Amino acid sequence: MIRLAIQAKGRLNEESVALLAEAGVAIEESKRKLLTQSNDFPLEVLYLRDDDIPQAVAMGVADVGIVGLNEVEEKGFDVDIAHKLGFGKCRISLAVPKSEEYNGLSYFNGKRIATSYPVILSKFFKENNINAEIHEIAGSVEIAPSVGMADAIFDIVSSGGTLVTNGLREVEKVMFSEAVLIANKNLNEEKQQLLSQLLFRFESVERSKGMKYVLMNLPHAKIEEAIAILPGMKSPTILPLAQEGWSSIHVVINERELWGKIEALKAIGAEDILVLSLEKMIL
Ligand code: ATP
Ligand code: MG
User: Fold this and answer.
1) Considering the entire predicted model, what is its pTM?
2) Helices 189-208, 13-22: crossing angle, 10 deg rounding
3) Which ligand gives the minimal distance to the CA of 14?
4) Among 12, 16, 55, which is best to mutate for testing ligand 1, by the most ligand atoms less than 8 A from CB?
């Protein structure tokens, strides 16, 4: 049995549960319980505030956890980052009132900065020889300058909409973050085994994201040209068709490249092109 801590509610909760489901680890929605067990994988989920997840994993209260890299950095507990999960992407940035003239980091010397990430910020200022006053506040950081609590802020930004609404301008991107799977450093063999099994499943889910399974018919004579156009896990699968002189080609293509490849294939005579969604890619 392995115990996974995830955020009880908030921005990372839904995607954490969805990732588990895609990896074949179904969790019953019972929000009132702190701990739930999966029926189809030896895993139990512990629901916590995201702030508490790094410590829970470091102490071994949970074996693994899904949490933002920003929280891992801020809390500073000694845990392994087992995998980057690709969701919950954001950055932590310094922002100043938009009317202020900003001409580089030295702007912050002697200024008061409001943030929920004092550790990350003081490390950054130290590395850059900036002397500023850091004011730790738990929430609503973005209103601190307009109410006179601070001169600038250091906070999470994703689209930047909140900054604009509060009359602020992002001037320094200090850290990029995304959800990560963290692990306790002293997992026993059974738990390590379960962790690798989980990672294998996560990777298969990720690999299939944005990939399409494409089938098409092509004259035999054009196969070499088609191979040159197509990527493929190994090489495209080529099957003879009942119709003399024609083959069926099957290949996995990244969605980003899909239209370009299809146009190139049509140009060399591909017909009857089918594009199917791909659920899992297990290598
Ligand atoms: P908790 O109640 O668990 O303490 P919280 O209010 O501290 O939750 P959330 O706002 O739910 O935290 O954000 C959780 C994490 O999601 C953040 O630490 C960050 O890694 C990521 N995150 C936050 N804001 C955004 C955003 N706008 N876009 C993408 N990811 C974000
Ligand atoms: Mg929190």
Assistant:
1) 0.88
2) 90
3) 1
4) 12
